Amino acid sequence: MLFNERASFSLATRLRTAEGAEIGEVFSFLSKLYFRGKLTYAHAFASREVTPPILVITPDRGLLPPETRVTVEDLRRFSEIDIASGDERYLAPLLRDIDDLAARVPADARLVLLGSIATGKYVDALLSVFGPRVVFPREFVGRGDMSRGGLLLRSAREANELEYVPVEGAQRTGKRPPKLEPLGPSRR
To answer: What is the pTM of this model?
Structure first.
């Protein structure tokens, strides 16, 4: 849809310009509830000890602030990389930025991972540098993407920061928890 040159909705047209659009907006559009939940939650609870306080893992550009602008050509390059396979085009920039982050964050800072914890595609690189300082919301275990997104949106809306546990040594997969109860209209 975003690659369609005839698409006339705002995000698609902005992606075709040199200025592009914010990667946070693009990923929120592509993954709907899940990334929107991650971004909303991160804005609500991110520590301000490090600048920028929120970083997005990308397929070939390492870690980027969600305000970073990308174009449709960037998205085409992203789509060519299989991050689950350990492609060097993914790992090299990610490890570079993780090392840079390690030099900037306080030695006791926790890194909250709101991405997938079930596989090593994000976890392994982070653990290699940060070890037990990489944490994730305990409530993620057993939830699919949409359920995690809903949980994160609900938590941000209710100003309820989730409990974090270290990724290292944690049970990262498990029985699916009960479905979340539907929310009523937002009061904000």
So the answer is: 0.86
